[in-house]
Structures are given as C-alpha cells and as structure tokens.
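Long-time lurker. I teach an intro course on protein structure, and each term I like to show students one example going from raw sequence to a predicted 3D structure in token notation. This year I'd like something fresh instead of my usual example. Would anyone be willing to generate the tokens for the chain below so I can use it in lecture? Attribution to the forum is fine with me.
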Amino acid sequence: MPKKSEPLAITGLGMVSSLGLGVVTSCAAARGGLSRATELDYTVVNTEDNQPEPVMGHAVPSMTRGFEGVGRMLRLGQLAFEDFRKSMNVNVDEINPARCGLLLVLPDPDRSSRAIGEEEGKKRAEHINPLLKSAKEPCDTEEIIARFRQVTGFQAGERNAVIIYSGNAGLAIALDRATGRLQTGEWESCIIGALDSLVEPPVLQWLFDQGRLKCADNPVGMQPGEAGVFILLEQKSRAVRRRAAIHGLLCASATCFEDNHLFTGKPSSGKGFAKAIGQLRQILDTGIEPFWLISDLNGEVYRSMEFGIVRVRLAPEIPSFRNAKSLYPAISFGDTGSAGAAVSLCMVLRAFARDYAPSHNALILSSADSGERGAVYVQKLLS
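-- Reply from a regular --
Happy to contribute to a lecture. Here you go:
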C-alpha cells in the first residue's frame, strides 16, 4: 500500500550498466541518446536447424566478462557499490550496519524454467541445449549476503539483510518493505540494491525459445541487458539534519498482481497496473503539473498492449495521465530485468539534478513476467 507519511529522501545512488560504470555517466549517455547494443559473446541454438545464432544485447563492457550465475550478480553489485561509495559522496563508513537495512533485489532463480503456456512450454523445453544450462547450484540467501559483504566491504547486519527474488517489480516491493521500518525509526537508513543480467547463456536460450528476443525473425522482441544499481533511503528530516544531498523524494509506492501475466499466454487485462496506480490516485490527482511517466516497455507486444490498455483505462479517471510525457530506458540499456525500475529511478533523479526533466513529479511503472506490478512515485526536492 502507498505510504502517506513524510516522504523518504533518496540520498545515495550508484550504478553500472552497458553505458559504463557510474550513475552520472550512464544517465548522461542515455540522455544523449547513446546505446551500446553489440553482438554478445554467447549465441543461442535454433532448434529448427540446430545452428547457433548470434544475439544483440546490452552487456556491461568487459567488466563482467568471465563471470556467470551468482558470481555475475555479485560482480555487478561490486561495481555498482563502488560507484555508490564514490560518485554520490556516500560515506558508507558512517552508516551504522545495525540500524541500516539491506534489501537486495535479484531475479527469480527459477525463471529460465518458466514457459508461456503449459503445453508450448513443455514442447520448447525439450529442445533446450543442456550444455547451456548452469552447472552450478544456486547459492542460498546467507551465502549471497556473506559474499556481498566480502566484495563490497559493507558489513550488513544479519537481521537487517533480506533478498527479494523478483522480476521487474522488485524495486516497488523493496520500497514497500523499507518504508515502514524507516518511518517508525526501526532503521535509520536503508540500502537497496537491484541486480540482474539477461545476457547469460541459460537466460538467452530461454528467451529465444519463447520467441522473446529481438532478431531477424522477430522484430518486436526485446534486446537483453544487464545492470546493477544501489540507492540509499532515509527519513527526510534526518537527511536535512545531517545536510545530506537529497536527489529526490520517494512519495509513495504500490504493488499489485496481474492475473493474466506473461506466463499464462493471455493478453494482459491491465487490471494489475490499474489497481497499483489507483492506490496512488490521491497523490496523482493533487499534482500541480502533469507527471513524467517512465515505463519498462522493452519492445515485446505483451507489454506494449498492456501499457496501451492502462493508459486508455486511466486517462478518463486521472486527468494527469492524458498529458504525461513518457520515457523508455530500455532504448538505451536494453531490458535489465530486476534492475530495470532502479535504472529508471536513476534516470529520473539525474534528470532532476540536471534540470531537464519535463516535470517535477515522476511515476515509474514496472511489469514482472510473473504478474507483479509496481508503481513508484517520486518528486524533485524544491527549495
């Protein structure tokens, strides 16, 4: 549910993406219309002729090469946390781990076993090249947290560290969990990390077998990407007291579920997003100016149809929806999965900082393949 208390201050950012290491440079490059889609190191196997096919995607250049599975996630986390420490002037050493939450948003470890439609899924699963499947067992939560402490040097408290296995809506879920504990004072601050890679062999083959990759035979598919993002949240009053740089205000977040999600093989009804956005209606209706609408559209027909249905459904009910200008980060970064909403948040906050945002209010929408829908509303801090 949306939080109606004092907005939370976002006082730290860090990012690594296909456009390089650094939230400032990555967002500036995206703002300039740059994209670094290249032929990936890995290929997929076409089951019709058993021939390898190249894939275009948005991989982090050189810095993640040689890392796979959990190791690749941790490498993305290490790089993004390095930027989190340096570029945004976050003094991590001053953060009290006992009073700081750590929420890591990671992809569903079983996602590459999902299929669109049960019968079609079974048929396609029979043709997946077994050599492309990961040979390593997934790490458990405690091991991932321990390895995170090791690669970043931040000694997160055991009770305060949580992993959220989700898709694109993971940031909204994490914000919902963090908000209550920050507003009650249980936590002084909270670090949220969102990490994902869709450019690894098992995931690429899974996406290809489902007909979701953009290629010569499928011009309306996605281009896979990868990214890591860290943000620091705290109460606005606390941030003001310690004279921290406030990049933006988290005003509300909401999550709901879409019954006709991607894995059902049915077109979206748009009801999941309508419910999530409806929870924020009071805030959206009181906006003095139209808000900025950021969506994780990635080129797939399913998401495009859903986005269109939601806009048509809500335009008569929420006037600000009619004139909302849109932004699609996947154009520059590809589909970054569980990190996607956090990437969108970084683009919004940097637009606030550089004064090129078309509005002082932004609504970030995220659609997970498995049905979760997220809506996050942020504002620029106006003096």
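Some talking points for your students: The chain has a mean pLDDT of 87. The first strand starts at residue 8 and ends at 17.
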